[in-house]
Amino acid sequence: MAHFDSSHAPIPETESADVAARNARYGLVLFFLYLAVYTGFVLLNAFGAEWMQLELAGVSVAVLYGLALIVAAFVLSLVYGWLCRNR
Amino acid sequence: MIYEPSAVAVVVFAVFVAITLGLSFYFGAKARSAQGYFAAGGGIPWFVNGVAFAGDYLSAASFLGICGMIAFYGYDGFLYSIGYLAGWVVALFVVAEPLKRMGRFTFADALDGRFNSRGIKLAAAISTLVISVFYLIPQMVGAGALMRPLLGFSHVAGVITVGVTVVLIVVTAGMVSTTYVQFIKGGLLVFFCALLTVMILKRGLAVDPGQSGGRNYLPRRATLVANLPPQGMTPLEPGKAWAGKPYIRARDAADRIHVWRIESPRGDSRDAAAMAVDCQTVTLDKTGRRLVNGLPHGRGEGQSDLLPVGNIDALPDNQRQTGAVGPFQFLAVLGRSEIVQWSSEKITEDDGAGTTVYYPATHSGADLLLPGASPTFKGVRGGRFIDKLDFLSLMLSLFAGTASLPHILIRYYTVKDQASARKSTVVGIASIGAFYILTLYLGLGAMISGNLDVTNSNMAAPLLARTFGELPFAVISAIAFTTVLGTVSGLIMAASGAVAHDLMANVMQIGLTDHEKVRAGKIVAVVVGAVAMVLGVLFEKMNVTFLVGWAFNIAASANLPSLVMLLFWKRTTKQGITAAIVVGMLTSLAWVLASAQTFKDVYGLPPETALVPFSQPGIVTIPLGFAVLVVVSLATGPTAREQPVVKSE
Fold first, then answer.
1. End-to-end CA gap in chain A
2. In whole angstroms, how far apart are CA B299 and each of B303, B304, B460?
C-alpha cells in the first residue's frame, strides 16, 4: 500500500500484444459457450414450461438449471484464469 | 407493520458505522492526489478488490430486494439472481482486460482512449451520471426500509441518515476507503448469509413456525361463507366500491372492521361449501390517516396493527415438522408442500379513501418453484408473445447490464495490472455466485418463517433473521446497512468522477490542478448525495429489485454497444460512439418513463394507457444502439481510418 500517492504514472502494461490477443480469444470462446447455456435457460423459461417442471431427485429442472448456471459461471472463470496464466 | 427498535440492534449498528467511518478517515488521510482519490492509486491487492467487487455489486437491491421477491413469489426472484451473475461473464470474458488497458479514471476515459473527442466525453459522462442516479434510487429506498425496524426511524429520516453518512465517507477519502468498506462488507455479507442459511436448514420446515418477536403470525383462517358474518357483528353494506367483489365485511363491538374474502371454489365443489378467509386491510383516508382493519394504526387500546404472515399449510405425508434438512432436501420438501402466500387488492372507497386488502391463498410449493408466479413475470405462463418478450428483454438487460455499470467498471482501475484484474474478477464471481445461491434459501426461508410484512417485501431478510433472535437480526440489519453505505458511496464516486474529471476538466476544459479536481469531485459528491436522498423518499413504495432492473436496462442500452464495438469493430468512429450512447440512453429512459409500471406506481395513471407494449426496454434499445453505431460510423467512415490509434493526454 505504499503507492497511494504515485499519482500520475499511467498503469504499466505488463502483457504483450500477443498475450493480450490470445487471452481475448479464450475470453470470446468461453463467452459464447456461456451465452449458449444462458440462452437455453431463458428460452426454456419462456417457452418450455413443461420441461422446467420435470424433477430430478425431487428438485425441479428450473431450480437445478439455475443453480448450474451460477456454478458454471464460477467454473468458467477459473478455466479462463488458468488459460490466461502467465507462461 | 410496526417494528420495535431493540437496544442490541442499536449497539451493533453503531459499532458497524463507527468502524466504517473510522476506516474512511484513516485511509482518507493517506490519499491526496487525484489518482489516489479516484482510482486508489492502482494499489489495491487483487483479493481485496475481488471481494470489493462483490461488495459493490451485492447492493441493497440484491440483498433486500431479491430475498423479498423470493419470499413473496418464489422462483421469479431467483431469475434476477441468475441474470445478475451471468452479467459477470460478459464483464470478465469480453470487457475487463481491454478496458483495463485503455483507461485510467473513468468509463468515459476508456471509451475516449482511441479518439480524443469532447463529444464522447460529454455523452459518456452524462450517461454515467444518469445510470448512477437511477441505480442510487433503489439503494436509498432500501436504506429507508432498513432504518425503520432497526432504529425506529421514519423512512425519510432513514434516507437522510444514509445520505449524510455516505457523503461523509466519500468526501473524506475517496476510492481507497470505498474499496476497503466494500471489502469488509462483501465478506461479512456472504459469511453471515451462509450462517443464516445453515440456521434455516437446521430448523427445517414446520407447519407452525411459532412466535417471533413475541407476536403470533396470522395463518390462513377459513370459515364457511354461510356462517359469516359471525354473531354479534354488524354487516357492512358493500356500497359502490365493494359491490361485485368477493368480500364480506362486518364491524365488531370494538369498531374493528373484519373482512373475509370468498375463495373461488376448487374443482367441482360449487357454492354449498364455499369458504372465506380472514383478510387484513390498510386504509389511507382522505386526511392522510392510516387505518388498519378500520382502527387507527398502533399497538395500543383501540388501535390495530398488521400481523406477520407466511407459513406452510401442509407438509408432505402429513408431517408437522421435518427437523434439520439438507440443502437439496429443503427444496424437495418445499416443492411437495402447500404454502400460504399473501396477495393484495386495492379498492377505492366511495368517499375516495384507498383501501388495500391483503388476503391469503394456498399455493403448491412446486408452483412457487417455477417461473411466472409473480405479477412481473406472469406473462411467461400466458400465451401472449408480447409478455414473453418482456421477460426476454429483462433477462437480456441483466446479462448485458453488469459490464455497463459505471461503478463496476471503475473498480478495474484500482488494481495494478491485467492479471490482477482477472484474478479479482474470479474472486468476485465466486463470492457473488455463493451469495446468490444463499439468497434462494434466505428468501424461501422467509416465505415460511411466519414473519413477513405483507406491506413491504424489502424487509423479508431482516425479519427472517429476527425469528432467530435479536442478535442475528441486529447483525444482518447492520450488514445490510453497510451494504447500502458501500454501494451508495461507490455510485457517488462514479458520478463525482464523471463530473469532475470528464465534464469539467476534459469537456469544458477548465484548467484544474490536481488538488482542485479532487475538491470539485467532493462538491459533486455532496450534490449527487442530496439528489439521491430526495429520490429515495419519492420512490419509497417500489420493490428495489424492480428498480435495479431498470437501471440495468439503461446501462446496457447506453454503454454496451459502444464498449463492444470499440473493442471488436475497427471502423467504429467517434461520431458513431457518441450517437450510440445518446440514442441508447434516451430511448431506454423514455421507454421506462412511458411504461405501464411507471404509469401505475409513479404517476398514478391506469396502466393500460401506457405508451409502450411492455416495460423492459432492453430487447429493443440495445440492438437499436448497435444499429445507430454502425450506421453513423459507416456514414462518417473515412475519418475513422485516418484516426491514429493513440491515447489522449
1. 27
2. 6, 6, 21
| Contact call for A58 and B366, based on CB within 8 A | no
Residue B363, strand partner residues: B339
Does residue B231 sit in helix, strand or coil?
coil
Question: Cβ distance B131 to B551 under 8 Å?
Answer: yes
Cross-chain Cβ contact A12/B416 below 8 Å: yes
Helix (H) or strand (E) holding B202: helix B175-203
List, as ranges, residues 161-200 from B with C-beta within 8 Å of A. 176
Contact at 8 Å (CB) between B74 and B373?
yes
| Best to test chain B binding among A4, A33, A39 (most B CBs inside 10 Å) | A4
Distance CA B556, CA B403 (A): 8
Q: What is the DSSP letter of B206?
A: B
A67 falls in which pLDDT band (50, 70, 90)? very high
As given in the structure block, the three cell numbers for residue B172 are 473524506
Comparing C-alpha atoms, which of B504, B432, B401, B563 is closest to residue B38? B504
Give whole-number Cα distances, A26 to A9, B176, B189, B565, B592, in Å. Answer: 30, 32, 32, 18, 36
**What ipTM was predicted for this assembly?**
0.84
Backbone angles phi, psi at B361, to 5 degrees: -150, 150
Cβ contacts of A38 on chain B, cutoff 8 Å: 86, 89, 399
Q: Collapsing DSSP states into helix, strand and coil, what is residue B247?
A: strand
B471 or B33, which is more confident? B471
The interface residues of chain B toward chain A in range 265-304, judged by CB-CB distance below 8 A, are: none
Residue A20 near chain B (CB below 8 Å): yes
Contact state of A4 with B395 under an 8 Å Cβ cutoff: no
When scoring B35, B374, B425 by the number of chain A Cβ atoms within 10 A, the one with the most, hence best to mutate, is B35
Average pLDDT over residues A18-25: 81
- Dihedral (Cα; B231, B234, B237, B241), 10-degree rounding: -100
Task: Please write the tens of the pLDDT for every residue from B558-584.
Answer: 888 988 888 778 888 888 888 999 999
Q: How far from chain centre, in Å, is Cα B584?
A: 23
| Nearest CA-CA distance, residue B581 and chain A, Å | 24
The DSSP symbol for B337 reads: S
Cell of B95: 470487457
Task: Work out the mean pLDDT of chain B and round it to a whole number.
Answer: 81
On whether any CB of chain B is under 8 Å from the CB of A68, the answer is: no
- How far, in Å, CA of B406 to CA of B552, rounded? 11
DSSP H or E stretch at residue B346: strand B338-348
CA B23 from chain centre, in angstroms, equals 27
Residue B102 carries which side chain, given as an amino acid letter? M
Helix, strand, coil fractions of chain A, as percent rounded to 5? 70, 5, 25
Residue type, B338: E
The model's pTM is 0.85
* Of B519, B374, B429, residue with least CA distance to B54: B429
- The Cα angle at residue B592 between residues B591 and B597, in degrees rounded to 5: 125
**Are the C-beta atoms of residues B286 and B351 closer than 8 Å to each other?**
yes
